[in-house]
Write a sequence for this structure.
């Protein structure tokens, strides 16, 4: 079915434009009805990041869920992976995260998790979509069955303890100087708390949310501030989360970024050495660098690729028995512990490797030299540019030019009217030329 609301990661759009109180109310009602199974009291846990619009969206969701007989537990600001974990831990029927991840404060979104802590299957989202188009007045709960709502204490602390338990009991980060950038988002309390309890010396930025500064000149998508702070404080490492803390980019002691591909390489090699790696390799997306694939092959591991989106990575991991997967953007899924990307847990795993090795981050986290990769976005208005004959011809020519020594990935964004054109190969000039030719064809067709 053609979907009006759900995209690649829940429902996302401009606050008070697409993401309105009315929509949130109806999502609460529809999702509550879909997950209303049996005669027991049903519960939903709702978390959020730090956007100004979360106050109205949270209240509207509460109204929707309680109106169909679901009890609501409210955590306040907390990372997306914490909601996934707490949904399972607290035996809830449903988990909800109000966030637009790395987007600016003007945007917002609603992410839904099933009782197993995983994002909903397409079929379940389709059920909710169908109900959103219906008049649900006749399905409201009776006066005695209306749900209740309460704010719960200790949710952040439960998540911090969960994250720390992914590490060896004797790990002590004393002596490590760590800069944390929480993007003025959902991790602004939990990340410093966890690292401080592990003994690290902390320097904090992006931990003063005001409703409109989430991801603004901070966080994993804008690294200038944390790179400067790592150099200024002569820190051993920087940890940059995004707005809902489900992704992470690290910064080495020289102020250089370490992306998700390098993190996957570090964790996979470490877990293989410890006998913990399942599936014989790693799951990543078509956007991961060819250098990662070559590095993994050099240590006897394979790289399986999926479509872009952490949900696709998770689905492949679950169906094929892998326990390490992720995206170049910093979504790292370690299924021994988590059901979705978790920036803090991924950072802790790398800190464990660094601490045990006694070597600097620049050595530990540079497992391969990335193959030259060029990515450009082309915005379009209506139509499908990829169906244009000029675009098809340019793509065919690009594939021929790159040959077996490179890769070409052309895909529409799942959240905005943009075509993403990515090419990589050992010859940077050829890669840039291929991308420019395809971008020119798409622009002409758009």
């Amino acid at each position: 079915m053609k979907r009006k609301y759900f995209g690649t990661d829940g429902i996302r759009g401009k606050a008070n434009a697409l993401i309105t109180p009315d929509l949130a109310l109806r999502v609460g009602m529809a999702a509550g009805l879909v997950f209303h199974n049996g005669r027991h009291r049903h519960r939903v846990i709702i978390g959020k990041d730090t956007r100004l619009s979360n106050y109205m969206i949270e209240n509207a969701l509460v109204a929707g869920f309680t109106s169909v007989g679901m009890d609501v537990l409210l955590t306040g600001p907390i990372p997306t992976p914490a909601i996934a974990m707490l949904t399972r831990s607290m035996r809830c029927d449903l988990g909800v995260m109000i966030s637009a991840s790395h987007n600016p404060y003007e945007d917002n979104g609603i992410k839904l998790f099933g009782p197993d802590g995983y994002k909903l299957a397409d079929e379940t989202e389709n059920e909710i979509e169908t109900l959103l188009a219906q008049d649900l007045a006749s399905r409201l709960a009776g006066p005695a069955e209306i749900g209740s709502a309460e704010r719960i204490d200790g949710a952040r602390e439960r998540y911090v303890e969960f994250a720390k338990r992914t590490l060896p009991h004797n790990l002590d980060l004393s002596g490590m100087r760590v800069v944390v950038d929480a993007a003025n988002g959902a991790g602004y309390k939990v990340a410093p708390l966890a690292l401080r309890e592990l003994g690290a010396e902390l320097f904090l930025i992006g931990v003063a949310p005001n409703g409109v500064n989430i991801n603004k000149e901070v966080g994993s998508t804008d690294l200038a501030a944390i790179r400067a702070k790592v150099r200024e404080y002569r820190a051993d490492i920087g940890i940059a989360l995004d707005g809902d803390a489900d992704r992470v980019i690290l910064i080495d002691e020289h102020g250089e970024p370490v992306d998700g591909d390098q993190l996957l390489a570090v964790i996979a090699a470490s877990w293989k050495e410890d006998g913990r790696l399942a599936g014989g390799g790693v799951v990543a997306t078509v956007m991961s660098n060819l250098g990662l694939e070559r590095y993994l092959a050099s240590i006897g591991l394979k790289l399986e690729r999926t479509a872009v989106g952490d949900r696709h990575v998770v689905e492949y991991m679950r169906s094929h028995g892998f326990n390490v997967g992720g995206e170049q953007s910093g979504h790292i899924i370690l299924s021994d512990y988590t059901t979705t990307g978790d920036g803090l847990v991924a950072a802790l795993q790398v800190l464990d490797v660094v601490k045990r090795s006694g070597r600097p981050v620049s050595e530990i986290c540079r497992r391969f030299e990335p193959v030259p990769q060029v990515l450009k976005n082309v915005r379009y208005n209506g139509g499908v540019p990829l169906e244009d004959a000029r675009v098809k011809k340019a793509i065919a020519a690009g594939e021929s030019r790159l040959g077996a020594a490179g890769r070409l990935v052309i895909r529409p964004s799942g959240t905005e009217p943009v075509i993403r054109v990515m090419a990589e190969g050992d010859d940077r000039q050829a890669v840039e030329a291929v991308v420019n030719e395809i971008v020119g064809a798409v622009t002409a067709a758009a």
In short: The domain at 6-153 is CATH 3.40.120.10 (Alpha-D-Glucose-1,6-Bisphosphate; Chain A, domain 3). Residues 428-445 form the longest helix (18 residues). The chain has four domains: 6-153, 158-254, 258-343, 373-445. The chain has a mean pLDDT of 95.
